[in-house]
Specification:
The protein is mostly helical. Helices cover 83% and strands 0% of the residues. The protein is elongated and about 55 Å long. The two termini are 32 Å apart. The model has no long low-confidence stretch (mean pLDDT 85).
């Protein structure tokens, strides 16, 4: 994903390289953190614990993404390049889809 973004953000392109690269790394960290909380709760016998783990991971992901967007908006203010923000939203959707597929496979295997 970083390689694709590297070529998408070449000189004179639509995206800003530093914003897209750092944003993708931050989103990867957030997805890993969410995966960690959900994976930790998947092995318990109590199904409520799994639901709480998923909800906790979702809330953490939501608030960290809001904090990241707010930091980007406050830092760049009028120099914000909107296509960068939309690309990062798309990257978030890719990470969420990958995480969902992996979690569903893990849940089937562990049950």
């Amino acid at each position: 994903l970083l390689v694709v973004e590297y070529f998408l953000s070449a000189e004179g392109s639509l995206f800003t390289r530093s914003i897209t690269q750092y944003g993708t790394l931050v989103l990867a960290f957030i997805a890993f953190l969410s995966f960690f909380f959900t994976e930790k709760s998947i092995s318990h016998e109590n199904p409520n614990r799994f639901v709480r783990g998923v909800m906790l991971a979702t809330i953490i992901k939501f608030f960290l993404c809001i904090i990241g967007v707010a930091a980007l908006l406050l830092t760049l203010r009028k120099n914000l390049h909107k296509p960068d923000l939309f690309l990062l939203m798309f990257v978030y959707l890719i990470y969420a889809a990958i995480e969902s597929v992996i979690m569903s496979k893990l849940a089937r295997v562990k049950k």
